[in-house]
Amino acid sequence: MIVLSDAAQREVDDALEVALSRLRKRAASLGESAAALGEATAAAAAGGKRLRPALVIAAFEAFGGDCAHAPGLWRVAAAFELLHAAFVVHDDLIDGDVERRGVPNVMGAFRQRARALGGDARDERTLGDAAAVLAGDLLLFEATRLIATAPVPAPARAGLFVLLDDALLVSAAGELADVEQAIGESLPPTASLLRTARDKTAFYSFQAPLSAGALLAGAAEAQRSAVEAAGSEIGIAFQLADDLIGTFGSRAQAGREPGADLRAAKRTPLISLAAETALWPRVASALALAPTGPIAVREAQRELAASGARERTVELIEDTQRSARTRAADAALPRDAVVLLAALAAAVEERIPR
Amino acid sequence: MIVLSDAAQREVDDALEVALSRLRKRAASLGESAAALGEATAAAAAGGKRLRPALVIAAFEAFGGDCAHAPGLWRVAAAFELLHAAFVVHDDLIDGDVERRGVPNVMGAFRQRARALGGDARDERTLGDAAAVLAGDLLLFEATRLIATAPVPAPARAGLFVLLDDALLVSAAGELADVEQAIGESLPPTASLLRTARDKTAFYSFQAPLSAGALLAGAAEAQRSAVEAAGSEIGIAFQLADDLIGTFGSRAQAGREPGADLRAAKRTPLISLAAETALWPRVASALALAPTGPIAVREAQRELAASGARERTVELIEDTQRSARTRAADAALPRDAVVLLAALAAAVEERIPR
């Protein structure tokens, strides 16, 4: 979504590599099983797209920050990637997922390890859970440590801790709501599902990194508020585009079986929007069959589209660009910040499967 | 084990109460399910004996620190209690425990909540796991945040982060080893089980809090090393005493069914010490039957004692006092620090069930 300069990308990659290789080495000094945990933990943080660090840096530059004179910037940027990795590892544990990007994740790797140690199915579960809990804890702490010890002025560090504090609590609230909204017979209202998307994803993935970059560049309070509000909306739009991809996207775009969200009967705003239409009974019947196979998936896709929910979701995403522009104008953001927010909103739009 | 002055105890309690009520209030502002998470998280940190904060403060005073002029001390002390609470919540998740001190813990409370929401057994597990993961994350972050933002000089904060960093990794290594050592047929050697006790418990519960207090009081590097080494030994002794209580202690002392460790077939150094004697075959047969009921438990207790393993464990604990005295003398610790370490070793000895 954002392309950093080669130099900036290298600085972020270096900061992450320093943190992760330090973790691996220290873990290795504590014995063989700790070494395996260190490797799995570092691997969990190594393979991402590094979107969140890019947002920190792009916002820093957009608010006039000079990357050549920002010794703490790279560590703060790297911290957001580690925070993301921590959340992913713990999210996978909660969801019971043993793979990510087609290879065993921390939990999967340690379930295999339990088998190799002669364990039974119960041992596999326990060791997989233990490793996932601990890897996430180590990543969460490392993210926090990088910011606590980054060479930035004390007021900036205090501001970053306010952001982090909110990011932890809001994301936890979103994760919990996400699990609770999957329970029981009744589909939650669209407003609740959108709020969950905001809390679980938009806050720590967009709002907080953009705000951190603006803060480090010395942006005024009102400007940071505007960036945070726009970041939140862009983040929700990002999640809605993700839902569209998981529902209508091709295998190539989704990186998994087409219609995976339908097969998993995921409760997304896309579904609740359909539930608010007169065509819901037809959609509901089609959705109920979707887990049975590809033909039923295609039927559910057709009914969802016919209900207007697909189009309505696209409109919600498209509204984001307009809203970001308004917020930018109201807060008199610098030109580069306006351009950045518009570019992000446009990049989210481009992800919509057509 | 340590009795603080009323004033010091009040300061610690206040620092914890401020942190936890702040967490509860902020969580409540994020909706009903977040409010429930905030309540459960705060409850998980509220009921402990506050041993670790007491160690921070006792060490601070023993090294000449003046509690009346230590604005950051109470937050640092409180942070160690929150760290402990985080580990307990995540440990319970790993062990699948749904109660602590006879009432539902975070996981137990949210399994009940899932039932109330109309969930099935799978929903109960998922929501319980989610809440336990998230509550532990919030507590871990809050512990870190308290130290990162405590009013202490920058070098002290840096030193505290080195300690925290080690505490996280060493405890994770110990927790993982603890799970792995329960897998498979063969009993690990005593040295490995003692090391796990050191890593999982002694480091963050004794070594790190004592060292943090000494650091805040301005103790010299060599003195801190001596305190850390003694703290580690006292912590291992504490765990060995715990094993004796879980194996031989009365219901009153253990706070649970007598011989609970035998019923759960726990692999403790006490067991591996027996395995190193000629009487092991008899002990092993008795241990194999112990989970069947109270008569078999008593038989296993008799055989363990007859093997000499019980006496050997008591000796290991009793050695601690001597060793602490030697370390204190070698590093020329101040008199109050010598007294503190001796008092801690003596308090651990007093826990030995006779």
Architecture overview:
- The structure is a homodimer of 354-residue chains.
- Chain A has 354 residues and is mainly alpha-helical.
- The first copy, chain A, has 2 domains: 1-50 and 68-152, Farnesyl Diphosphate Synthase, CATH 1.10.600; 153-354, Farnesyl Diphosphate Synthase, CATH 1.10.600.
- The first copy, chain A, contains 16 helices and 2 strands.
- Chain A has a two-stranded antiparallel sheet with strand order 1-2.
- In chain A, helix 1 packs antiparallel against helix 2.
- The longest helix of chain A is centred in the middle third of the chain and has 28 residues, at 121-148.
- The two termini of chain A are 18 Å apart.
Which descriptors apply to this entry?
homodimer; 354 residues; mainly alpha; Farnesyl Diphosphate Synthase; 2 domains; two-stranded antiparallel ribbon; 1% strand; flat
Task: Kindly summarize this structure in a few lines.
The structure is a homodimer of 354-residue chains. By secondary structure, chain A is mostly helical.
Fold blueprint:
The structure is a homodimer of 354-residue chains.
Chain A: H1 6-28, H2 32-46, H3 51-62, H4 73-95, E1 99-100, E2 103-104, H5 106-116, H6 121-148, H7 154-180, H8 190-216, H9 221-248, H10 251-254, H11 260-263, H12 269-275, H13 280-289, H14 294-306, H15 309-330, H16 335-350
Antiparallel strand pairs in A: 1-2
Helix pairs in contact in A: 1-2, 1-4, 2-6, 3-4, 3-8, 3-16, 4-6, 4-8, 5-6, 7-8, 8-9, 8-12, 9-15, 9-16, 12-15, 13-14, 15-16
